[in-house]
Amino acid sequence: MTITAALIHIANEQSLIAWLAANVPGVIAEDGARVAGGLARTASYPNPGQANDGPAGLYANLTAAQVAQWTALAADPALGITILGQMPYQGLGTGAALYAAVEADAEAWPLWESVATIPARKVSGEAGEVIQIPARVARPSVQ
Predict the structure, then answer these.
(1) Which pLDDT tens digit goes with each residue over 13-56?
(2) Is the peptide bond before 46 cis (omega within 30 degrees of 0)?
(3) Cβ-count burial of 44 within 10 angstroms (0-12 exposed, 13-18 middle, 19+ buried)?
(4) pTM of the model
(5) Which residues of 16-39 are buried (b: 16+ CB within 10 A; e: fewer)?
């Protein structure tokens, strides 16, 4: 079976979930909060673990049928889906290669950054000192 790694941007995740529930029943999890169907994917950013009321992004490993499904959905501008990048899944390292390809794309990378940037923050160290953690862009993947 051919698997494709894909990085996907969704303009409004909750709107997409509502549209899928109404138009493509069976692809929504029972709780209505997640797209289901055997899709090996990360939680969506910027709020993993919940449907985002606004833009979201996810990394997914897709079967050929799922690539066709997402490509068809992305062709409808009203759904706000952008496939930022995709490549054949070849095991460990595929995610890093996909992110490198998307980062090199001047149009795609800003969309990913808009949903996956983790802001700088301060944390307390073991000795009580304040440690500044710099901002970074999340790069989740499924191995």
Answers:
(1) 888 878 887 887 666 554 444 444 445 456 676 766 666 678 88
(2) yes
(3) buried
(4) 0.80
(5) bbebbeeeeeebbeeeeebbeeeb
